[in-house]
Amino acid sequence: MFSVASHLTARSAMNDDAVALNSKKSSKRRCKASRGASRTTIRAEKTKDGPSVCIAGVTGAVGQEFLRVLKQRNFPYSEMKMLASKRSAGMKIEFDGETYVTEELCAESFDGVDIALFSAGGSISKKFGPIAVEKGCFVVDNSSAFRMVEGVPLVIPEVNPEAMKGMKVGGKAAIIANPNCSTIIALMATTAIQRKVGIERMVVSTYQAASGAGALAMAELKQQTKELVNDGEIKTKEIFPWGYAFNLFSHNAPMTENGYNEEEMKMVKETKKIWNTTDISIAATCIRVPVMRAHAESINLTLKNELSEADARKIIGEFPGVSLIDDRANNRFPMPTDASDQDDCYVGRIRRDISQKNNKGLELFVVGDQIRKGAAQNAVQIAELLLK
Ligand code: NAP
Description:
Layout: H1 4-11, E1 52-56, H2 61-72, E2 79-84, E3 92-95, E4 98-101, E5 103-104, E6 115-118, H3 122-134, E7 138-141, E8 175-177, H4 181-197, E9 199-208, H5 215-231, E10 249-250, H6 262-275, E11 281-288, E12 295-303, H7 309-318, E13 322-324, H8 336-339, E14 345-352, E15 361-368, H9 372-385
Parallel strand pairs: 1-2, 1-6, 2-5, 6-7, 7-8, 9-11, 13-14
Antiparallel strand pairs: 3-4, 9-12, 10-11, 12-15, 14-15
Helix pairs in contact: 2-9, 4-6, 4-7
The protein binds NADP nicotinamide-adenine-dinucleotide phosphate.
């Protein structure tokens, strides 16, 4: 039977018990928060009328989360197929009371499949995404391969569902791109403000978790932490060239010519595409921090029109998929542990920026589980829109 722990051991030289991807404990965790409006979810069991679904990259951090999210949201499906690399072919995976055998992803994998959830990396998406579409399969892609391609919808269901208007299982197949996780989390916190008064400038600083770099990075952080605590030094450096435990560093995405790295530029470009505007200035600094799961972001806004702090708090809190943790009296604001394994993004520290004139400067802090809302959950929500 598939276990991430044994699989990671097979995938790398790491001798760790790896990541606790199957922990149910945290999903029961509830923090004190005012809930936003509830989301639309489709409720159904395995059904003959449901679409045939496959997961490309099922053994990865996002792939494993797909399984949990599909089950938790009771996504309707008639058939389910588990795909990964050759290395994982033959591995058994339990899902919804049935045992599936993982298959090596190939062109034929998409025969008869209605919806493919892709999380096997950009090169696999580029190669097999178009093949899947050719075979009549909708592709919901988690990589950056197609995000900025004209005509490919880049969708956060709470923010711009209209971008995939008319797309429906049974109709003409297409690729739909899932935005970058940091972009999703930032726009969950700020779209209400953009809609209400417009945003002239957005400056984001991120604090990104190990989970954003995949299952192996999570395992490495855990391993290094053990080594530091037990032996006083880091011995394992396989994913990042420097120590990750008790450290932080500029995001590992490749650097671009303008001095921003690709993760930072994704936030700039994707935000404009999702909000369908070029009339905004955006800059980001993305940092990897030794948090296991859930990204945090500090966001500074210059607004086009005035908005009081109270009104900002009200409209952010009412946005679907957002909860507030903004308790100044107790100095209690969102933390990654609040968001881990949770559907919602949590926003707090909502305050006027005292360095900006009038009521046009606003600061806030957001955390979101980027494997979940930043990847698997957002993709499954997109798949739900394909069924409406
Ligand atoms: P991961 O934990 O490293 O998992 C990678 C997955 O891809 C594994 O299932 C792996 O299968 C599979 N794979 C690798 N090479 C393959 C091949 N040649 N053929 C078929 N399958 C192959 O990575 P991840 O974090 O889940 O990320 C996966 C994708 O989602 C990436 O494109 C990433 O950018 C994107 N994404 C990740 C996050 C996040 O928070 N982690 C957020 C948004 C988007 P094996 O186990 O067989 O090698």
